[in-house]
Amino acid sequence: MSTSPTTQHRASQITKGDGSMVRVLVVDDEHSLTELLRMALRYEGWDVRTAADGFSAVKIAREFRPDAIVLDIMLPDIDGLEVLQRLRADGTETPVLFLTAKDSLDDRIAGLTAGGDDYVTKPFSLEEVVARLRGLIRRSTLTLAQAKDPVLAVGDLTLDEDSYEVARGGTPIELTATEFELLRFLMRNSRRVLSKAQILDRVWSYDFGGRESVVELYISYLRKKIDAGREPMIHTVRGAGYMLKAAG
Fold this sequence. Notes:
By secondary structure, the chain is α/β, with parallel strands linked by helices. Helices cover about 40% and strands about 20% of the residues. It has ten helices and eleven strands. It has helices at about 5-10, 30-45, 55-65, 80-90, 105-115, 125-140, 140-145, 175-190, 195-205, 215-225; strands at about 25, 45-50, 70, 95-100, 120, 150-155, 155-160, 165-170, 170-175, 235, 240-245. The strands form three sheets. Strands 2-1-3-4-5 form a five-stranded parallel sheet, with helices on both faces. Helix 8 (about 175-190) packs across helix 9 (about 195-205). The radius of gyration is 18 Å and the shape is globular. Mean pLDDT is about 80; it is low at about 1-10 and about 140-145. One of its GO terms (molecular function) is transcription cis-regulatory region binding. Keywords: DNA-binding, Phosphoprotein, Transcription, Transcription regulation, Two-component regulatory system. InterPro entries: CheY-like_superfamily, OmpR/PhoB-type_DNA-bd, Sig_transdc_resp-reg_receiver, WalR-like, WH-like_DNA-bd_sf. Pfam families: Response_reg, Trans_reg_C.
């Protein structure tokens, strides 16, 4: 990875709405790896903290309040999944990028099911981690306030891009950052069939290893939260993709 700053790179830096630095927590017990990531992320202009074990990660996250977390699944005390569960129990919806040495779909899905937003498999390139973090941060509340029309409404479903609030029939619905962006994409294209490839490209901003199963997984998450006990709004168009439309 090049470490020579360029005007183009500096111009593309992400900052918060108030102009302050983005905060990222990196959690891994490999010191050399955390130092490489610290260097790469500081080059992005971000404020970076590190932790070498799960308990430290939870403590630092509560104090530092990061805007994104890079979290290794295999840690010496509690694993990354347990770390995330504890943070989510605090009400924290910070986007999480899992690091895993296991190249199996089951392990990746376990991380996503636990509430993670993305993952990379070791060994990985620093450029890949930075690119995925930039995508997660852009999809988070840091940039939602820039939308011209902050409130989307389809039938009795509303999504406020300023406050990050979602409700159906007036009942609040809690979503992760990735679920929020998926629903936002569906709502902005209501009554339009979106293919899995389109959803992958827009919501994850890259080819998710060619695995369209992650789209199915997140559509199922949304259905449980949006459609459970109500007339369905999210529809599968066999062989074509998915469509969201007002119930009734």
